[in-house]
Write a structure and sequence with these properties.
Elements (H helix, E strand, L loop, with lengths): L2 H18 L4 H10 L18 H13 L14 H24 L4 E2 L7 H35 L4 H15 L1 H5 L9 H25 L4 H18 L5 E2 L10 H16 L10 H11 L9
Antiparallel strand pairs: 1-2
Helix pairs in contact: 1-3, 1-5, 3-5, 4-9, 4-10, 5-6, 5-9, 6-8, 8-9, 8-10
Protein name: CAAX prenyl protease 2/Lysostaphin resistance protein A-like domain-containing protein
Pfam families: Rce1-like
Keywords: Membrane, Transmembrane, Transmembrane helix
């Protein structure tokens, strides 16, 4: 295990992002003092650029510290069905979360527009998801593209949990200014976000490995989830306790847990974890037949 590289990368990812988010530090500290997050997100649109901190950290590591270089680091594959899974899997999760919350009476959904729902859906799919995926690539190039391969020799599950325990608290400043869980106590926010992070990390790892170590595929999954959940299941459109009704609440986490159990129960053998990062680029160049089997 290359623990020195892991620790250095994590330190850089936190330092770059939290330095960029310096303007929200006072509001974050105020939330801790009041022991309550704001009722609406107060970070501003510029905070989304902080998502590129893990990518910046990975570039520094690849070029100057661990020196793997950049060749093949995106692990691009050409199997289109992985991208369909990446885009429409989160759509199914968000819509199921909304449906369960409304059907059980624990939440109410308001699309927030007079336009037909198909119009909103199409905008999120065609415009929102590509934009969100480009932003998510800033995270995934670091978390899954650099950190995960360093940890995969420990096994997919262990590696996924470690990544999640790093990834979820990385969002802490944003969470404290109202991201995902407005009007809630900070400890509960961190616990729910970490639980969500573990579930998502397991799914992202499985898709990353199955898709031949493709960072682009997991970036599309991350981006699609952000696009649809941020617009359809946020507090403005899905009312109710955010600890319960949202994708990051008990309903969404429960659905993710079911998918994780099914996915890992029926997963196919893949090449060894220590071989994947080195072969991902070559696999993409050789075509489709030599990629690992999908989930």
């Amino acid at each position: 295990m290359q623990w020195r590289e892991v620790v250095t990368f994590v330190a850089l990812s936190y330092a770059i992002a939290w330095a960029f988010w310096t303007p929200i530090w006072p509001d974050a500290l105020q939330s801790l003092t009041r022991w309550r997050t704001p009722t609406s997100y107060g970070g501003g649109a510029y905070t989304a650029l902080g998502m590129f901190a893990p990518a910046a950290a990975a570039l520094v590591m690849r070029l100057f510290i661990s020196k793997e270089g950049l060749r093949g680091s995106l692990g691009v594959v050409r199997r289109w069905h992985y991208y369909l899974i990446a885009v429409f899997g989160p759509v199914a999760l968000v819509m199921s979360t909304i449906g369960i919350s409304v059907a059980t009476g624990i939440g109410e959904f308001d699309p927030g527009t007079n336009r037909p729902f198909w119009y909103v859906f199409l905008l999120l799919l065609v415009i929102g998801t590509p934009i969100s995926s480009a932003l998510a690539l800033g995270e995934e190039y670091g978390w899954r593209g650099y950190l995960l391969p360093k940890l995969l020799p420990l096994g997919e599950v262990t590696a996924s949990v470690i990544v999640a325990l790093i990834w979820a608290p990385w969002h802490l400043l944003l969470l404290l200014v109202g991201l995902n869980y407005p009007g809630k106590d900070p400890l509960g926010v961190l616990v729910l976000m970490t639980t969500l992070g573990i579930g998502l990390s397991l799914l992202l790892t499985r898709l990353y490995v199955a898709a031949g170590c493709s960072v682009l595929v997991v970036a599309f999954l991350h981006g699609s989830l952000n696009s649809f959940s941020d617009r359809l299941s946020d507090a403005k459109h899905l009312s109710g306790d955010p600890f319960v009704v949202t994708v990051g609440g008990l309903v969404g986490i429960g659905l993710i847990a079911i998918v994780v159990l099914i996915t890992y129960w029926r997963r196919s053998p893949v090449v060894s974890a220590t071989e994947q990062p080195a072969t991902s680029s070559a696999q993409g160049d050789r075509g489709h037949d030599e990629l690992p089997a999908g989930p």
